[in-house]
């Protein structure tokens, strides 16, 4: 069940603290039958403005996979965003909002041939690839399309690295550019991803240097590269210090401009940074227990877990912040787990979370910065638990 509540007007400059207050007040004032993501359109718009300010001439292509909620996409459309889509379903969802297909890139490097054909027929012109076989599919089903080659980059310092599954080794890039050209495609540039939740802009410098070397070699070899897609990686606040969105983006762009002379088109694909801080999950404590009389830590079980929206707690990579109505009480470390009958559904055990000692079943728990990668990671019905509800305010 998705609900839509008309957003407040004239509040496009939310700070994070203001956003948290608005979301917390809404959750405190309402009861929820099951875990629910509450997301603020105003916060999404404010975050777009902050990133766009710093990115300057770079065009934002929102990574739809982070949160494809219709109201979120409408808000970003109205802000002037373009969109990065990973599937036919995402493309259809964006097109249904009246977005021009020229403002959509098909950024997944692993695509079904029929989906390439669909996107091309719909007017999408730009496609990602990192393998010769993918270029063959694009040439067959989107002849003459613009393609950019995604590179593997090392030395990433992201909390959630993306350096194995996607991209080709730098020494393959020129071969793929040549193959694309031979197939009649238009190899317009390169792309990369520094890794999700790269908390400091300076962490971009080493990956950018790797990509810049390929860019220079390709242009020297006669390839008319003009597009650089810097991907995502822009961080959200989960408790550890990060730079403000505008300052972070501006610093990254200083490095990008120096690294890619001749680039006339710069794409950025923020997802997490656009929507994470705009959302908060309303959850409930189901059980508080200990495994033995001398157990050092309580186990606190919530009605939401890894399979119902909090998949990014895998390896405890993303450290969510929790708010309760008992935060004025004494706190102590606890192990946090989800509700499902799966032993993997433990959120934080290596680094226990400090929560109020008096916490008990039925208490409401609010989880901050949950607007990204929660609804899309939630299972359809594992153990019979329903998908995460969404309310937009």
> Treating each run of at least 4 consecutive H or I residues as one helix, how many helices?
10
Low-confidence runs of at least 5 consecutive residues: 1-12
The helix fraction, in percent, is 25-40%
Elements, N to C (H/E):
EHEHEHEHEHEHEHEHEHEHEEEEEEE
Radius of gyration over C-alpha positions, nearest whole angstrom: 22 Å
Overall structural class, as computed from helix and strand content, comes to alpha/beta
Short description:
The chain is built from 10 helices and 17 strands. It is of the alpha/beta class and 393 residues long. Strands 1, 2, 11, 12, 13, 14, 15, 16 and 17 form a 9-stranded mixed β-sheet that branches.
Notes on the structure:
It is a single chain. The protein is an alpha/beta fold. The strands form 2 sheets. Strands 1, 2, 11, 12, 13, 14, 15, 16 and 17 form a 9-stranded mixed beta sheet that branches. Strands 3-4-5-6-7-8-9-10 form an 8-stranded parallel barrel. It is about 30% helix and about 20% strand. It has helices at about 15-30, 40-55, 70-80, 90-95, 115-120, 130-140, 170-180, 205-220, 245-260, 270-275, and strands at about 1-5, 35-40, 60-65, 80-85, 105, 125-130, 145-150, 185-190, 225-230, 265-270, 280-290, 300, 320-325, 330-335, 345-355, 365, 390. Strand 9 (about 225-230), helix 9 and strand 10 (about 265-270) form a beta-alpha-beta unit. Helix 2 packs parallel to helix 9 (about 245-260) and helix 8 (about 205-220) packs parallel to helix 9. It is elongated and about 70 Å long.
